[in-house]
Amino acid sequence: AQSVTQLDSHVSVSEGTPVLLRCNYSSSYSPSLFWYVQHPNKGLQLLLKYTSAATLVKGINGFEAEFKKSETSFHLTKPSAHMSDAAEYFCVVSENSGYSTLTFGKGTMLLVSP
Amino acid sequence: NAGVTQTPKFRILKIGQSMTLQCAQDMNHNYMYWYRQDPGMGLKLIYYSVGAGITDKGEVPNGYNVSRSTTEDFPLRLELAAPSQTSVYFCASSYSRESNYGYTFGSGTRLTVV
User: Fold this and answer.
1) In which residue ranges of chain A is pLDDT below 50?
2) Residue A34: which of B100, B58, B105 has the closest Cα?
3) Is B73 left (phi over 0), alpha (psi -120 to 50) or beta?
4) How far is B63 from chain A (nearest CA, A)?
5) Would you state the pLDDT for residue B95?
6) Is B55 in contact with B67 (CB distance < 8 Å)?
7) Interchain proximity A100–B42, CB inside 8 Å
8) If you measure CA to CA, which chain B residue comes closest to A53?
9) In the prediction, which pLDDT does B1 show?
10) Are A13 and A105 in contact, with CB atoms under 8 Å apart?
11) What's the CA gap between B49 and B72, in Å, rounded?
């Protein structure tokens, strides 16, 4: 079985400061991991994905994430927050086994203040 | 390039009414999914389909039905609407069975049952 835990329901940062959104996962197989972003009243957009290649993954809008198997973590980071980064972020796992589907975390709301 | 199209965007239903949420994709994806999103809960899988004529239950299928007569369309049916079905519904599709390419999401249907 697969599961994902987002360790913070809300994260507040100031514009220009670093962003860290934490995610831990559980999977019986070698997982694929994703981060999706959802802006208010919008659909979900794929930020980045890890699929067993390089452990440091770069995504859109300056975000990146590092897959750490020993820590079962896939934290999302960005060096400098912009106001437009304010949104809800979802960490997602897929076991890559059979007809595996995506399992979503509960989400982290990122608040960015001027 | 339409991607995944959901209709309607908003709907208010009375308890006991029925309705169909429409979902269509133009990317020739075999895999399609229905999720519901409730505040603070992430997304939960309702049903999915791996191809025309093939559907299967996800994590929260009770109260819903689906069909997949064509590759493009994957409607979700609510037969007897209940207040617990008030939610935002997202349809998604994917190219790969391993889902390591991520999913393409529609913009969602916001349903209120009163």
Assistant:
1) none
2) B100
3) beta
4) 21
5) 82
6) yes
7) no
8) B100
9) 62
10) no
11) 11
Region of B28 on the Ramachandran plot (φ > 0 left; ψ -120 to 50 alpha; else beta): left
* pLDDT attached to residue B98: 59
User: Chain A interface residues facing chain B, Cβ-Cβ under 8 Å?
Assistant: 9, 32, 34, 36, 42-46, 49, 51, 90, 94, 96, 99-107
Structure tokens at A105: 């975390």
DSSP letters spanning B98-110? T-TT--EE---EE
Per-residue model confidence (pLDDT) at position A97: 63
Q: Cα separation of A65 and A78, whole Å? A: 9
- C-alpha B72/C-alpha B2 separation (Å) is 12
CA distances from A34 to A41, A76, B14, B34 (A): 21, 10, 37, 18
Residue by residue, DSSP assigns B75-94 as -EEESS--GGG-EEEEEEEE
Place of tokens 């995506």: A102
Instruction: Look at residue A7 in the predicted model and tell me its pLDDT.
Output: 96
Cβ <8 Å between A32 and B100: yes
Q: Extract the tokens encoding A41.
A: 């009243």
Tokens describing residue B105: 């999401």
pLDDT at residue B99 in the model:
56
Question: From the first residue on, what is the mean pLDDT of each consecutive set of 10 residues in chain B (114 residues)?
Answer: 89 96 94 92 91 93 96 96 96 76 88 96
